[in-house]
Structures are given as C-alpha cells and as structure tokens.
Amino acid sequence: SEKKIVIAIDGLSSCGKSTIARQLAKELNYLYVDSGAMYRAITLYFLRNNIDFNNKEQILNALDGMDLDFRLNEQTGKVEMFMNNENVEYLIREMIVADKVSEVAAIPEVREFAVKQQQKMGAKKGIIMDGRDIGTTVFPDAELKLFVTADNAVRVERRFKELYQKNPNITIEEVAHNIEMRDYIDANREVSPLRKASDAIEIDTTNLTPEEQLQKVLKIAQNVINN
Ligand code: CDP
Ligand code: CDP
Fold first, then answer.
1. pLDDT (tens digit, 0 to 9) for every residue of the chain, 227 residues total?
2. Which of 13, 111, 146, 192 to mutate to test the pocket of ligand 1 (most atoms within 8 A of CB)?
3. Helix 210-225 vs helix 17-28: crossing angle, to nearest 10
4. Residues near 126 by Cβ (< 8 Å), separated by ≥ 6?
5. Terminus of the chain with fewer CB atoms < 10 Å: N or C?
6. How far away, in angstroms, is 103 Cα from ligand 2 center?
7. Alpha-carbon distance 104 to 106, whole Å?
8. How far apart are CA 55 and CA 52, in angstroms?
9. Domains along the sequence of the chain with CATH
10. CB under 6 Å to ligand 1: residues?
11. According to its UniProt record, which reaction does this protein catalyse (predicted)?
C-alpha cells in the first residue's frame, strides 16, 4: 500500500492554510488537524474562568485535566473542536477569542500542553496539521512542509468575508487590526515563533483560486508520497 506521511502547514492568519489542509486531507484520505483550534479552545476556557495570563499556578491548574478533542460531525463531514465534552467549534471563531488567542498561545505552559497532544496525534502518520510551529517544533521531521503566504490586504479581505457571514456588524478595520496584532505576536514571541522551516516549500496563494492552489499542492504531495 501507499506510504503515509506527515504534512506540516504553517503561515500567518488567513493565508489559506486550512483550506489547503482540508483539500489535501480529502484527496489523500488523511486526517486533518487544526492546531489553532486548540489554542482557541484554551483561550475560551481562560476567558470564561478569568484566568490571569501572568499567573503560572492558575494556568497550570486550568490546563490540568482540560480535555480537548476533535470529533467528526457525520452530517457535515467536518471535524469540530470539543472542550470538556462541549462543542465549542462556533464559539472559538468569535472575535472575543481571536482578540486574546495570540497572548494565550505565547504562554510556554500552554504551548507545552498543546504540542504534546499534537505530537501524539501524528504518531500514526497520514496526518495534515496546520498552525504556526508545525514544521519547526511539532513535526520537525515531517516528510512535507508547506509555508503558505498571501498579501496582507488579500488576507484581511478573505477573513472579513468569512466573519461577515456570521456577524454583519463586523468591520474591515476590526479584522485588519486583529490580523495585524496576531501577526506581530505570533512572529515575535519567545517560544516557537512563526518561522519558515528551512526545508519548507513556500506557496503564495495571493493570486490562486482554491482550485488552483489544490492542483499545485496535490502535485507536490503526490511527488513526496510516491518517491
Ligand atoms: O485561522 P487563523 O489563521 O486565524 O488562526 P488559527 O490557526 O485558528 O490560530 C489562532 C492563533 O493560535 C494564532 O494566531 C496563534 O496565536 C495560535 N497558534 C499558535 O500559536 N500555534 C499554532 N500551531 C497554531 C495557532
Ligand atoms: O487557515 P488560514 O487562516 O490560513 O486561512 P483559510 O481559512 O484557509 O482561508 C481564509 C479564507 O480565504 C477562507 O474563507 C477561504 O475560503 C479563502 N481562500 C480564498 O479565497 N482563496 C484561496 N486561495 C485560499 C483561501
């Protein structure tokens, strides 16, 4: 049978990572894991429980016993994030979480907690994970690493369109501000900042339709799998 590999996809917000990951997972019949959903779920928990982001003891207590898992929704065919058995897939995409997630994801104890679980999920191969540190920290030995980019204005426009469907009160300025802030924190934090791994292949999606980007990355992936 065909060899199963690990595919790591990194890049800034709204550059097209999860679209590529979902497309490839479908074509290759691989498991897709959205690592950002875990940081978002942890953030939701911290906000609900008023965890002080500077208090290590509170943070460790909050993480102790926190149960994060991805479950397949049979109706939609999409994987959804569950936190302590509650479906939080919708809530974690709200701006309230997006506003704080990069701060929470910069906390070393939070990263250690998430990375450990992510590495376990990859042990059986046949997995595609997207995030910020997948090719550098989570799976440094991944057989295929993609580093996805897109022009800033295009990223803002794409994310705005997505969020506007859920909340017509959202403004493009709000989205632009959130993306700019997260870009900065994610690229400049001390632990596992966003970096292009030296062996990652760069994919600029600025001028690609989802169909065009799929053709491009599928060819690359099949090349790695068949060689
Ligand atoms: O979908 P989007 O690109 O907006 O973000 P996401 O993938 O849902 O990730 C949300 C946030 O989680 C990012 O802005 C990072 O702060 C953090 N994150 C991270 O630090 N490391 C990862 N592997 C994935 C996400
Ligand atoms: O995962 P990430 O935050 O990097 O981005 P995404 O969720 O894959 O893409 C953000 C939005 O851009 C989605 O609504 C995609 O449908 C859209 N997109 C696009 O219009 N053209 C592409 N080539 C890739 C994504």
1. 678 999 999 999 999 999 999 999 999 999 999 999 999 999 999 999 999 999 999 999 999 989 999 999 999 988 999 999 999 999 999 999 999 999 999 999 999 999 999 999 999 999 999 999 999 999 999 999 999 999 999 999 999 999 999 999 999 999 999 999 999 999 999 999 999 999 999 999 999 999 999 999 999 999 999 98
2. 13
3. 50
4. 4, 5, 28, 29, 30, 31
5. N
6. 23
7. 5
8. 5
9. 6-218 (3.40.50.300)
10. 13-14, 35-36, 39-40, 101-102, 105, 131-134, 182, 186
11. dCMP + ATP = dCDP + ADP; CMP + ATP = CDP + ADP
* ipTM, two decimals: 0.98
Which residue of 158, 206, 207 sits with most ligand 2 atoms within 8 Å of its CB, as the best mutation to test the pocket? Answer: 158
221 close to 144: Cβ distance less than 8 angstroms: yes
Kindly report the protein residue whose alpha carbon is nearest to atom 9 of ligand 1.
36
Smallest CA-to-CA distance from 125 within 111, 103, 141 is with: 141
Residue 105's φ and ψ, nearest 5 degrees, are: -70, -10
